[in-house]
Amino acid sequence: MEQPSAAAASRPPSFTSQTNALLRKNLIFQKRNRKGTIRLIIVPIYLCVILSVIQRVINNELDKPKYRCGCKCVDVNGTGSCQNVCGIQYSTLDQAASCPIPNPPKWPALVQVPLPEYRAVQDSSGLFTGLSDESCRKSQTCPASVPFTGANRTLSTSVMQNLFTSSPLSNLSDYTSISSLLLGTDVPGTSTGFIEPAFTSDRPLYVLQPQCISADSVTVPVTIGAVNAQKEIKCLQGLPLWRNSSATINKETFKGYRKGKTAEGINEIAIAYDFQDSNEKHFNVLALYNSTYQNVSYVPMPFGLLRISRSLNAVSNAYIQFLQGSSVKMLLDFTKEMPKQATRLTFDFSAVAGPLFFEWIVALLFPVMLTYLVYEKQHKLRTMMKMHGLGDGPYWIIYYMYFLILSTVYLILFVIFGSIIGLNFFKINDYSIQFVFFFSFINLQIVLSFLTATFFSKVNTAQAIAYLYIFGSGLMAGSLIRNFIEGGKFPRHWITVLEIIPAFSLYRGLYELGQYASRASETGNPGMRWSDLNDHTNGMRDVLIIIILEWLVLLPVAYYLDHASSVGHRPSSLSVLKRLLKKDPTRRRITVNGVADNDVQIEMEKPDISQERETVIQVLQQQSSSYAVVCDGLKKLYYGRDGNPDKFAVKGVSLALPNGECLGILGPNGAGKSSFISMMIGFVKPTSGNAFVQGFSIQNDMEKIYNSMGVCPQNDMLWETLTGREHLQFYGRLKSLSGSSLDIAVEESLRSVNLLHGGAADKQVKKYSGGMKRRLSVAISLIGDAKVVYMDEPSTGLDPASRKSLWNAVKQAKQDRAIILTTHSMEEAEALCDRLCIMVDGSLQCIGRPKELIARYGGYYVLTMTTTPEFEQDVENLVRKLSPSARKVYHLSGTQKYELPKQDTRIADVFMAVENFKKRVEVQAWGLADTTMEDVFVKVAKGAQSSEELS
């Protein structure tokens, strides 16, 4: 395989070359996955269409005569011919809201008083003095208490004495004569002044006076606009009560609410005043009232505020009379709403229901990004890229930018299409606010994806939890945030604390946009603008601050955890938590055959193993540069779980591998071969010992080792949608290859592993057979100028022709690099490896060149003979004559196999004896063979296992 010059390829890949390689690979990957990407992007468009259809259905329903201002054919001129006249007087309750009101009615100003059964009475606490006994509630004669306080008690008391005036109710002839009195009602108000419910209700009105007689009431005619009725007016005693502080008044005002006798609480106090520092020259008063009464925070303008104007006018009148006498008055004659134009009844469905659906649409990107990251983690693709030199910086830049571009396009199309089809949620609110909000959140969501990916190793698990999170958190946010905000009872700072959860902050921002869009639809005002963020009731500013701060905090945390878990031997996020929760298992003393780990001794170590260990010691002392790999007492222990004992996978392996040599590692299944390779390539961390690759330690310098390392793992780590050529181009660029050097290296690699025939190089890997994938994995490990290559059973699943081609490629590649290869094929080991070592139960049993091992462990011939069963004893007698120390190793149905020591046996004697034997006995078949590598392997493995069982 032709390689580029060492000067060009030996230097580590630059940041630019890594970024370029990953970018090109991702562009190809996304090109193949474009259908899925398009489907993802058009999901919000589908939702916008659905919302638009629902909105049109609602608009069509609201356009029906049922909701349009009512009309009637009226004889206007008295000619008998009617004229169609529209107005609120001809409308039902459903129609009235859309009618014009050019001349709103004038309503007498009222003060809110409690219902008779809820007015304040004396309780056992003794804190609120001066109140009536509780028995007055049964007779409904309890007065309306009016607590007051101030710095100057004398002045405050004098003013309060002027608050209520005495006037016989019999003097009232109609409602126009009561504006000089303090008139009240126990009927809740509304958020609009077009209709005063106190005059349409059958409840009486009250005149607050210092004293009342039991039957003090009068009925007066009421004519206001279209209202013509008889209204009962009763006397209600107003009871001013001095309190020492406004804190006491607050407790008294909210006492009834805290009792919770109704769903909304009750109101026991009519009004309260705090005169503060008022004196004869300075009037400063606060009107105190219970704003939670009847959930007034649910309406844009609490009805309690509409009743406060009369209370303030009354106390101002009382102060003026205190200064100027009872003849001076400043009357509040009436209250009147602003004229109203004809309106169309509207309901913005997207603004009301949109926040929850829009949250799901935005959060839908989270499981998509998480799946992408966990997929590469599950299939070890991230680790494979890292082992070929890809750093964390380029990986984060490319994937972060890809996710950012995908999310930005996704949401821009969402907003644009929503605006085009007329959703007020998008087209009314300032687009720059929407962009900043969405852009900030998608950056936070990308960081959360990287952070969350460190805790998952399976795509299915990650997807399931991600979807449960986005739908569950969306429902929780929609329920809690809306209720907390609209209820007005949950502290604002605790709402801000909840918004630290990303799903809650996303919902709060969408909720605010929806509220402004809804109000704009009703009032015609513009939607949210930047100046609105200064409004203390607008939570968008807090949301933006929280999202940006979270992004700044979680970005370095996510990068660190991702870096820590990107390679197997580093501690994962979960392992760190586990170590904090329980005792660190690495502190346990490890014993093998009763000997502590620190004192493990290898009993009866073979001379070749001892010699290799001495070579390692010399190389480490001399720091020889001619050795590519040096392993010094490498050990790997897997701790037992659920009562199982600890298991040593690798026990003190010491090896010295010079440049240009291929070392083969043989062993039965479970011998520790793959564990050894996994430690060398950074999959797992050694329990103890160390290894040096090109002078760098696998314990501390894996980042530097990756630049000069090639790996063919036991399991193929490939992208299903990339072709073989694209795989090699990507990994070639990671090895600093470019231009013609890259093209030549890719072509030679494909040719060497027989992937150029039949267009296999340009087929997607998902169409490859298992053998083709193995060949591609070998080609990936050899491309570039990797100084050390690890191959874990590279020829598994290959046909004989492909195997021979693969061997030729490895033979050519090992001329200028060191190769460590594990295999179960003795033929492959003899063909490729300069030296072989046999590993059994984690320990090296022998090491040397194939011929040396055969000579050392194969000093015998193998004689095989097949006869009829009755001549088996004759065959054994023949063998004993040839070699008394011969050993029978196989016997079945007349076929016997014997090992004949070479020092006792001459081949000519064997042939002569067999020929003479054939004259007397019918021999069906026979053969004499020298020892093979397979025989050596079986003998060493069985011998080691027997020794292990005896020990």
UniProtKB/TrEMBL annotation:
Membrane spanning stretches: 38-58, 357-375, 396-423, 435-457, 464-481
Keywords: ATP-binding, Membrane, Nucleotide-binding, Transmembrane, Transmembrane helix
Record-annotated ABC transporter domain positions: 629-866
Chief location: membrane
Cellular compartments per GO CC: membrane
InterPro entries in the cross-refs: AAA+_ATPase, ABC_transporter-like_ATP-bd, ABC_transporter-like_CS, ABCA, P-loop_NTPase
Molecular functions (GO terms): ABC-type transporter activity; ATP binding; ATP hydrolysis activity; lipid transporter activity
Protein origin, superkingdom: Eukaryota
Annotated localization: Membrane
Sequence similarity: Belongs to the ABC transporter superfamily. ABCA family. CPR flippase (TC 3.A.1.211) subfamily.
Name of the molecule in the record: ABC transporter domain-containing protein
